[in-house]
Design brief:
By secondary structure, this protein is of the alpha+beta class. It has three helices and five strands. It has a five-stranded antiparallel beta sheet with strand order 2-3-1-5-4. InterPro entries: DUF4283. It comes from Gossypium lobatum.
Length: 107
């Protein structure tokens, strides 16, 4: 089991950045109140069930928007810093006995 855990990583591979061309308007999004989460399982994960259960469980002050980034990876956008802190400090989180790893976003 320790070998399996040692080989886990949250990202499969790093993608090259895309560069805009010409006069493309860049929209800056604020990711300070966001977490990225990844479900550690080989099983199929039902996104809507995960989203609804976690949102109900956390009872955030301002709500939370949970977006499906890719298979088993999610963006959690909070509206208050206290909600981000409470979720971060309440770890580890699981859904259907599958561990969810959370990381702050890089911006």
């Amino acid at each position: 089991m320790e070998e399996d855990l040692a080989n886990l990583n949250i990202f499969e591979e790093e993608e090259a950045p895309l560069w805009g061309q010409g006069n493309v308007d860049v929209i800056e999004e604020d990711y300070r109140l966001c977490l990225v989460g990844r479900m550690l399982t080989d099983s199929v994960v039902h996104f809507l069930s995960t989203r609804n259960t976690l949102a109900d469980l956390w009872h955030t002050l301002g709500g939370v928007v949970i977006s499906d980034i890719e298979e088993k990876s999610y963006l959690f956008r909070f509206y208050y810093e206290i909600d981000v802190k409470r979720v971060s400090e309440g770890m580890p989180w699981t859904f259907n006995r599958h561990l969810i790893i959370f990381l702050p976003t890089c911006r």
